[in-house]
Amino acid sequence: MAKGMFVDTSICTGCKACQVACKEWNGLPGEPSHFHKVPNRPYPVAFNFTGNSYDNTGQLSATDWRHVRFIEQFNENRTEGRWFFSSDSCKHCTDAGCLNACPVKAIVRTDMGNVFVQQDVCIGCKYCIPSCPYGVINFSEKTGTVHKCTLCNDRIHNGLGTACAKACPTGSISFGEVSELKKKADARLSQLKGLGFTKANIYGYDEAGGLNVFYLFMDNPTVYGQPLNPIVPQRRLFKSAAITVVTAIAVAVAALISFRERGMKKETEK
Amino acid sequence: MISPETQAPHWEWYYIAMYFYIGGIAAGAYFIGSLLELLNRENLRSISKTAYYIAFPLICITPILLIADLGRPFRFWHLFFYTKDAAPYMNHTSPLSVGTWALLVFGGMSFLSFVNVLAEDGRLTSPGLKKFHVLFSRIPHKIYAAIGSFFGFFVAGYTGVLLNTTARPLWEATDPLVGSLFVASAASTGAAAIVLFMLNRKAGTSETFGRLEAFDRVAMIIEIALIAVMLVVAGKYAAPLLTGFYGVLFLGGTVLVGILIPLWLNWKGFKPGAAGGSMATLVAVLVLFGGLMLRISLVQAGQM
Fold first, then answer.
1. pTM (2 d.p.)
2. Do A265 and A204 fall into the same domain?
3. A254, B171: Cβ pair inside 8 Å?
4. What was the ipTM of the complex prediction?
5. Whether A102 and B91 lie within 8 Å, measured CB to CB
6. Fewest beta carbons within 10 Å, which of A21, A150, B88, B247?
7. What is the span of the domain harbouring residue A126?
């Protein structure tokens, strides 16, 4: 029975309550302050801003397991515009690149389908980091291990929902049984299509074997920084290994020819 | 589609790229040595011996580099043993996991071959090692030479497959050719290391050098061909490898100084008269330099 989340970005207001709730529940440290004092200036100076709309972390990291994206779409003379918000996190892929890549079984899938990093097993090899097509998981110098969203592993195994879903004031993030959430998502999509939002789409039914945390987007997923049809890296492993073996055989044949017994002609020449 | 937002592991070049390089030389050298042993080429025995002398000490360096790059170095043994199941562990979908085991086997085989050549040269003084040598000499040398060269190839190639099996744009776009490229480079740098070592010890004959240079030439041709195909396959995603600092390392260091110039010198040196020692040294040094630049540029440019 896989648990997951459905993120309906059409009703997200970008309030970042989910970011705050995530940090509070999981005990994650805050970000550096956005204003600080500078010598000889009486007022605080703006500092550490991403410069990208209201985005305050820029990406997911070892201490930011949720990241609210702000997408501003304006025409040239700024008479018309749209502002999209999307709360992003680990998608808990059914075929998870990080889990496939982990050499020590630190990254495991629990009975509720969430992908979880066992902090006492992780050795900090960092191979899972480039293996995630979504750039979710990241390394902490402080602990020497990797961290990411656990789908509130402790909460969901004790009958609660995720902290972000609990905090969400508009119901944009909902937690539950994946099959139930899909019904909800399909109903919402057909409602939006009926209202004339033809570009609305659901992201995460097929990607990476199906995402347990999936999204309803109002525009192309790439607008929201999500890759179209990302390939789980390990699905390319066999081909890559096979080509390498072929090359190894070619090098071995080259060696056999280079080091073979030479004929009489060459021997006498010498 | 290649993902726009992936994160870099921030592997340090002096650990990971260096390991790819040193592991490659050891594996390439061991392969050449064991192949000659398998072919029974007694007149080229000096090459085999040199290869075994090089491979083991080099492969001893590599775990130090790998463990130093870990966030939790003292947990390195988790790679072999999963405490919660109390059982040995290998993840067959992770090149890193399989490669670690291959490195262990390769290390073992290269140690046996190393002790073997020490005994052959009468340098085995420790009584413990002598007893050990007598014990494992009951197994035909060829068996562990064969196992060792298989795992040697594995160690040389899996590092490239490891890079390809990620979602970083450069590494994904160059799939599936980096493993092949690293195998060719390992063969070429392995041969170069043997040449350099033999020249230093004045152990070689003109025939041994001729054979090694002939092999190195083929390996370099394979390598340059693979680089050309790789760049075509990667298209616009190859940009980090062709521009900026890593562009200089890759195009200048690897392609020009590390492959094209030694290939040209090697070709020229093969005209009757044969190249002198200084030319052979120069070619070997350039090839070894090119191999290092190849690893550094590919590993670091993929993390930009």
1. 0.92
2. no
3. no
4. 0.92
5. yes
6. B88
7. 3-231
